[in-house]
């Protein structure tokens, strides 16, 4: 074959015709954009719907406030088409319910090796991501993936994202039934569906076969289905307990129950009707309010349910709604070898601990699921290619990714485990601690994300190292906890649903920006993400390991019998927790200890220019920062009132905190601003919202509450409002640093 043969030519006839046509069209759009003949805004949505993301490409100091980020896909390109290709970006690749064949793994490994840095990243939604990809290469990546049955279509953008499902579906000991074929059916039905092309934001779907475990996380998705059975006229029928309107993001929403039981034959038409209502009535202009959770909060679940059923009644009949029910075995798996017990076989050193934490006994006798734990969700091309070979020799290619950024091999005959362990060990894939506190989830953070504030991956690496060193001594109650880390408030690391969560922020100490993490406590991973935590206080990044150590020690020493961690945190109370961590919030001066001024995993220091600015500002903390800190304290007091069920006081306290922070900012420009809330809000809007000095998303939290104050108070609503107030305070810190630096420089 000629070496000049293109991938398009080599794969002709091996790609579904509709996909081949779509990839060709995208390739043409790339050329048009490169020639300046296609508007960037239009191309941005086009590439996002095909899984192509811009990413951070950090060439400068991370926390000095002056770094430059070169992006593959700039949101507003102003320098002409010739500068469009300067830096690499990222491809997100959809893996429905996490299911992979050996051939698919090999192609993924090849792509990372040929087009990137030989590293693949598994996300919290069972996708793969390959970073540092160039835009010109994306059509060929799509073709090669499509040839083995993988698509990047609608992996990003305002679309139905990857459909996730419990990685134990079909082999779980406590599931109602295998949800895999239903996840596959809804993915196929909604992919590219005309009724799903006009959303204001993304739409995420998840399935779980169990109500009380965490594998499916139905309660934190736009739509979540939990498998149920119901006896109707003496016949057992399958269906789903259907939830809608969940989501994490900056302000998490617990999903609301749409229906106790949706029969399987109604799953697809009801999903289509939900999509149509969302597309028609969901917010389009303000992206910050465009998720379906905001629509349901606005309409109320009863009205939303009525509209969906009304829409369902007028839907044209579609044979696809039930066609998949004729062959639910399409996703069934077969065992490669007979299931046989371990029977005391000789094993290598380290096997026993790996077996204890990484092996799950299937409901099918003699078979187990072996988890390949991947720190940070990363796997190399060499490792993935070798894992593909292992999946052919030990199982019948029954491999899945997980929402905890790992991979699992299903249908392993237990007698093969010693040999499997030895081979994984040789590949560097025999990490222990899967599903324990050591198995930390982290988003990409400042490594590649444009929104990253602090290094979530760096912190996760350090915590994993420290906890791993103590694993043999960890109390059983501590071992079962989950830690999840996000690089910013957007919760890509799912920090709200963790026992102990962190999200990145920053504070300035004597003019130098110091990486911090907000500590989030009170969440629950099980019960399909049964509860969401609240921020407790910001702590310097370098003190976070000690935060974990103190919380763990206190829990072991003071918990009551079988007490859940979230209940222990509630019993301890926010005031006590704040007092316990108060000394950890302190940061020494740069001269005393410069270590605090570098993030985890980043050895770079700060420039002398930055130090100079800090010295010119003087040692005294500005009144502005003191006032914003006081506003943050008021948010904390509001959360205490929430715990004590003083809902009106909690809501008012959160509003007062936002007003105080807003007034502080206004006083920087208009010192004699009156105290009246109406005046403060009006001046804040003119000086900071209209000028875009303050995050519009966070500013709207204040405007909405001030314009339409609550008259009735409900626990979930007040919880959400306190989250919004905390984010407003974070925005106030950021804005103050932005406007105060020039003023301080002028004073100097």
Task: Describe, in plain words, how this protein is organized in 3D.
It is a single chain. By secondary structure, the protein is α+β, with helices and mostly antiparallel strands. The protein has 5 domains: 140 residues, no CATH class; 161 residues, Sulfite Reductase Hemoprotein, domain 1; 76 residues, Alpha-Beta Plaits; 171 residues, Sulfite Reductase Hemoprotein, domain 1 (2-Layer Sandwich), CATH 3.30.413; 129 residues, Four Helix Bundle (Hemerythrin (Met), subunit A). It has 25 helices and 20 strands. The strands form 4 sheets. The chain has a 5-stranded antiparallel sheet. A hairpin with a 2-residue loop joins β18 and β19. α7 packs across α9 and α22 runs parallel beside α25. The radius of gyration is 26 Å and the shape is globular.
Which key terms come to mind for this protein?
748 residues, alpha+beta, Sulfite Reductase Hemoprotein, domain 1, Alpha-Beta Plaits, five-stranded antiparallel beta sheet, 20 strands, 40% helix, disordered C terminus
Helix content: 40-55%
Described by the principal axes of the CA atoms, the overall outline is: globular
The CATH architecture of the largest domain: 2-Layer Sandwich
- What is the CATH level 1 assignment of the largest domain? Alpha Beta
User: How would you describe the oligomerization state of the chains in this entry?
Assistant: single chain
Pairing-aware structural class of the strands and helices? alpha+beta
CATH topology of the largest domain: Sulfite Reductase Hemoprotein, domain 1
**Percentage of residues in strands:** 5-15%
- Radius of gyration, in Å, reads 26 Å
**Main sheet, how many strands, which sense, barrel?**
5 strands, antiparallel
CATH superfamily heading of the largest domain = Sulfite Reductase Hemoprotein, domain 1
CA-CA gap between termini: 70 Å
Helical segment tally?
25
Strands in their spatial order, largest beta sheet? 1-2-5-4-13
Give the total of beta strands.
Answer: 20
Structurally, the number of domains stands at 5
> pLDDT below 50 for ≥5 consecutive residues: which ranges?
59-86, 605-621, 743-748
Average residue-wise pLDDT: 88
